[in-house]
From TrEMBL:
<comment type="similarity">
    <text>Belongs to the enoyl-CoA hydratase/isomerase family.</text>
</comment>
<keyword id="KW-0809">Transit peptide</keyword>
<dbReference type="InterPro" id="IPR001753">
    <property type="entry name" value="Enoyl-CoA_hydra/iso"/>
</dbReference>
<dbReference type="GO" id="GO:0016836">
    <property type="term" value="F:hydro-lyase activity"/>
</dbReference>
<dbReference type="Pfam" id="PF00378">
    <property type="entry name" value="ECH_1"/>
</dbReference>
<keyword id="KW-0276">Fatty acid metabolism</keyword>
<protein>
    <recommendedName>
        <fullName>Enoyl-CoA hydratase domain-containing protein 3, mitochondrial</fullName>
    </recommendedName>
</protein>
<keyword id="KW-0443">Lipid metabolism</keyword>
<keyword id="KW-0456">Lyase</keyword>
<dbReference type="GO" id="GO:0006631">
    <property type="term" value="P:fatty acid metabolic process"/>
</dbReference>
<comment type="function">
    <text>May play a role in fatty acid biosynthesis and insulin sensitivity.</text>
</comment>
<dbReference type="InterPro" id="IPR014748">
    <property type="entry name" value="Enoyl-CoA_hydra_C"/>
</dbReference>
<dbReference type="InterPro" id="IPR052377">
    <property type="entry name" value="Mitochondrial_ECH-domain"/>
</dbReference>
<dbReference type="InterPro" id="IPR029045">
    <property type="entry name" value="ClpP/crotonase-like_dom_sf"/>
</dbReference>
Length: 263
């Protein structure tokens, strides 16, 4: 594997993307955001990839934005206003690319996921965390409220929990993060990669077209009025039912055999 900011490794239909700035706790520099945006765009059209795993190199998942880089922008005549607006817009585009991917995305979190790093984990479809991992939106501790990380966080955890995290700057343990819905699974020491791989392989074994339409429907129906949500998902299920592979899957279930999918 090369020393690029985003390392990619494919095996068994699973693409693993590794944030590769371990000395900076994988902080989201301008270059890192650009590299991850590009990597996600490539995955969107890659039919050989059925599941994506996002992880960090070294001892942390991601420590958020690169504060040194942000402070340097204050030297501009506008005190960095244009640079900050551009940074947050590009970061938001990258975060939105994760739920927009057709493939399920699993965050594999070790160490810390803080501020925009917590946002990154929450923007993934699922999270597997090490037992000693910690999650925080702690910008308030340095006088910067985590307003953009709040968007992803409030779509994963109850409002009161999110507000407490945002206003106190306190961290959640992996166990607490699982209790409130931010984390799906917790791995014991030394087993994080194996636990993540196990989940990824389970997803990769499904009919990928069904997972793709299901993921799209999952996000599209959120926030819709009840009747509109049922109308949308009913239409998607009708579409799904007419596929050859779905017909074969149902026949195989009824006949107690393994489906012969073209997928």
């Amino acid at each position: 594997m090369t020393e690029e900011l985003i390392q990619r490794e494919d095996a068994g239909g699973i693409a693993t993307l590794t944030l590769n700035r371990p000395a900076a706790l994988n902080a989201l520099s301008d270059a890192m955001i650009a590299a991850l945006t590009d990597a996600l765009a490539r995955l969107a059209d890659d039919r050989s990839v059925r599941v994506v795993v996002l992880r960090g190199a070294g001892r942390a998942f991601c420590a958020g934005h690169d504060l040194k880089e942000m402070q340097a922008a204050r030297a501009q005549p506008d005190r960095g206003a244009a640079a900050f607006a551009d940074l947050f817009a590009r970061c938001a585009t990258m975060m939105q690319a994760l739920p927009a991917l057709p493939q399920p995305v699993i965050a594999e979190v070790q160490g810390i996921a803080t501020a925009a790093g917590c946002q990154l984990a929450a923007s993934c479809d699922m999270v597997v965390a090490a037992e000693d991992a910690r999650f925080g939106v702690n910008g308030v501790n340095i006088g910067l409220f985590c307003s953009t990380p709040m968007v992803a966080l409030t779509r994963k955890v109850p409002p009161a929990i999110a507000f407490e995290m945002l206003t106190t700057g306190e961290f959640l343990s992996a166990a607490r993060a699982r209790e409130v819905g931010l984390v799906n699974r917790i791995a014991p020491p030394g087993h994080l990669a194996a636990e993540t791989r196990k989940l990824a392989e389970t997803l990769a074994a499904k009919l990928s077209a069904a997972v793709h339409i299901g993921k799209r429907s999952f996000y599209d129906q959120q926030g819709l009025p009840l009747a509109e949500a049922y109308a949308l998902t009913g239409a998607r299920m009708t579409e799904n039912m007419l596929w050859r592979d779905t017909e074969e899957g149902i026949n195989a279930f009824l006949e107690k055999r393994k489906p012969d999918w073209a997928d």
